[in-house]
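PROTEIN DATA CARD
Card holder: CCD34 protein
Chain length: 138
Origin: Climacteris rufus
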Amino acid sequence: MNIQLEKMKQNQECERRKRIAEQKHKEWLQKKREEERREKKRKLSKEMAEKATRELEKMQLQEKAEVKYKEWLQKKRAEEAEKKKKEKEKEKEREAELQEKRTRSEKIFKEWLQNARNKPQPALNGCGSPHGKSTGLY
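Structure generated from the sequence above:
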């Protein structure tokens, strides 16, 4: 009877230990899952923060690029305007020179024409030159 009682106590102790072990295992498993969930949440949060930082940097870089492009475009347009202005000035200078040359040429032509009218005609040579051609008789 004592042996059976002893065996029964041992079985009950064994069962109690088994339940305690299972309970501890369940608690450990629950803690582990909770820890994994928190770790996953932390990683996700970190990734989101990094992604947001990258997006922000990308946007800032894009804005910087746009500003530089606008500055470059403005500079290019200013250069083009300056180039056109210089070309117009050169064209005006050429036109003015051409006009001055025409005016001078016209003046010289008028002077020559005036002088040609006032110039005495050469006398005809009476040494046998009909129609102004030389006959070789001198």
